[in-house]
């Protein structure tokens, strides 16, 4: 086993959620609050990457603090009624990892309740630990808190973990804790995202199949 514990992002790494859920929810909310704002999926991906989701809503879309809370409630209600699909090949990778005695943890900006729901709905192995958006803001990734907790609770060393994520917060979290990192590049084809992740990640994979083949190498 290359790594005992896979530390997985959720959205756009395990499940195809931005294109099918988060972006449609964003568009519906903007129709209500900022109908003059029009954005493609690629633009939405790019702006979520840089400057990030909070500056996107606050500075680019001009939402007030009250509207930001409304947006989160709107998004939560939308997510509650829409379940994303797992990417082809990811289930086999996770099932094999668990059968070999490996651990699966999730560190995400989604809520834990939806992560557990999505894993169950897609017949994925139940994660051993989940750290979601319900954490205090200063403990969410890119802060390395979750990785330190995983190592403490599972009695693991840094080199026994692998963080798999599609965005900078996961990369920065792994770097801060000295944990190996791999980039999942299958959610989009936005040039600036791929350029950064390829340029800064020790390992970059464009498909789950590529990742699975690499992970299973002796």
Give the percentage of residues in beta strands. 5-15%
Topology-level CATH name of the largest domain: Rossmann fold
Counting helices, strands and paired strands, the structural category is alpha/beta
- Tally of individual domains: 2
Question: How are the strands ordered across the major sheet?
Answer: 5-4-1-6-7-8
Could you tell me how far the N terminus lies from the C terminus, measured between alpha carbons in angstroms? 7 Å
- Uncertain runs with pLDDT below 50, 5 residues or more? none
Shape: globular
SSE topology string: EEHHHHEHEHEHEHEHEH
Q: Count the E strands.
A: 8
Largest sheet: 6 strands, parallel
Could you give me the name of the CATH homologous superfamily of the largest domain? HAD superfamily/HAD-like
Radius of gyration: 17 Å
CATH class of the largest domain: Alpha Beta
Return the average pLDDT rounded to an integer: 96
């Amino acid at each position: 086993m290359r790594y005992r514990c896979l530390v997985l992002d959720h959205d756009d790494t395990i499940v195809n959620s931005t294109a099918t859920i988060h972006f449609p929810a964003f568009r519906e909310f903007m129709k209500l609050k900022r109908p003059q704002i029009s954005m493609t999926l690629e633009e939405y991906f790019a702006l979520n990457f840089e400057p990030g989701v909070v500056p996107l809503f606050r500075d680019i879309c001009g939402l007030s603090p009250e509207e930001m809370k409304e947006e989160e409630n709107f998004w939560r209600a939308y997510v509650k009624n829409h379940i994303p699909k797992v990417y082809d090949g990811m289930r086999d990778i996770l099932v094999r990892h668990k059968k070999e005695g490996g651990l699966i943890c999730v560190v995400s900006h989604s809520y834990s309740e939806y992560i557990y729901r999505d894993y169950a709905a897609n017949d994925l192995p139940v994660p051993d630990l989940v750290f979601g958006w319900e954490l205090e803001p200063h403990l969410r990734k890119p802060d390395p808190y979750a990785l330190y907790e995983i190592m403490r609770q599972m009695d693991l060393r840094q080199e026994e973990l692998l963080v798999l994520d599609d965005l900078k917060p996961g990369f920065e979290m792994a770097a801060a804790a000295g944990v190996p990192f791999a980039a999942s590049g299958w959610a989009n084809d936005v040039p600036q995202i791929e350029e950064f992740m390829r340029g800064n990640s020790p390992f970059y994979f464009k498909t789950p199949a590529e990742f699975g083949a690499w992970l299973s190498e002796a």
